[in-house]
Amino acid sequence: MTAGFWTLVILGGVLGLLLAVAAVWLSVAENPLIQRIQEILPGYNCGACGQSGCAGYAEALAANSAAIDLCVPGGAETLQKIAGLLNKEAAAPAGRKIAFVFCQGGVRALNAFAYSGILSCQAAAILQGGYKKCARACLGFGDCQKVCMFGAITISEYGVPRVDLDKCLDCGACLKVCPKKIIQRVPQREMKQVICSNHDTPKTAKAVCAAACISCGRCVKKCPFQAIELKNNLAVIDPDKCTNCGECAGECLTGAIV
Ligand code: SF4
């Protein structure tokens, strides 16, 4: 009994010693720079930088294997601090952008067939590109809303997502998840938008969605600043020329300009 007890004590002591030696031998000294960069990053872990999260981006920055301007949600302040810490030149901020959903069809966009599958835009898009007659129509299951970690997306009364300009931090998650590619980044400043992505001919566009741009060109003619042109059957507004005067919106018969 006593001998067995002491054998166990000695065995435990030897194993403990071995574990302690292994812990020291196998430990990797943490780079203090990683810790300092992590303190600067906002901690959203949104993945906008292309890494799995802020810790991954901090490691990549410390290893000099990533550009310093990839944390878009962190904004200019984060960029300046990282540039200062890493002694690098930060380019002048290009101006903030936000996500914008270029569709307002929703219930006004006609269905091509009845869909009763998984309630997800990505799943619905697998079946013939989606159940809407318009090939670029929002499918309305809110994949973008679910993925937005800033709560910036709500669903409108027509069943299409809308982005809250004050909450969007331009992480790009909604753009990536939208199977119809109708969410784009736009400059965050007051300007009109043609809230449609339909490239059908006027006759077809009219037939598939009551809210579609029908490429009639009325807005093009009305714009005093030549900021609008028709591209592939869709009116497109040049952000550098648009002054948000609103002349075009008043002229649009389908309400496709907001
Ligand atoms: S007026 Fe409206 S429907 Fe006509 S081209 Fe302009 S945006 Fe499209």
Short synopsis of the structure:
34% of the residues lie in helices and 9% in strands. It is α+β, with helices and mostly antiparallel strands and 258 residues long.
Q: Output the helix-strand order.
A: HHHHEHHEEHEHHEEH
Strand content: 5-15%
Give the biggest sheet. 2 strands, antiparallel
- Terminal CA distance reads 87 Å
Strands of the biggest beta sheet: in what spatial order?
1-4
Percentage of residues assigned to helices: 25-40%
Task: Specify the number of helices.
Answer: 10
Q: Cα-atom Rg, whole angstroms?
A: 27 Å
Number of strands: 6
Shape: elongated
Secondary-structure content class: alpha+beta
Low-confidence stretches: none
Give the rounded overall mean pLDDT: 92
Query: Which molecules are bound in this entry?
Result: iron/sulfur cluster
Features:
two-stranded antiparallel ribbon; elongated; 10 helices; two-stranded antiparallel sheet; 258 residues; 34% helix
What does this structure look like?
Strands 1-4 form a two-stranded antiparallel sheet. Strands 2-3 form a two-stranded antiparallel sheet. Strands 5-6 form a two-stranded antiparallel ribbon. The protein has helices at residues 2-26, 32-40, 54-62, 75-86, 121-126, 143-147, 173-177, 202-208, 218-222, 247-251, and strands spanning 97-101, 153-155, 161-163, 183-187, 228-231, 234-237. 34% of the residues lie in helices and 9% in strands. The chain is α+β, with helices and mostly antiparallel strands. It is built from ten helices and six strands, in the order ααααβααββαβααββα. 30% of the residues are buried. A hairpin with a 5-residue loop joins β2 (153-155) and β3 (161-163). It is elongated and about 95 Å long. Iron/sulfur cluster (SF4) binds at residues 194, 213-219, 235, 251-254, 256-257.
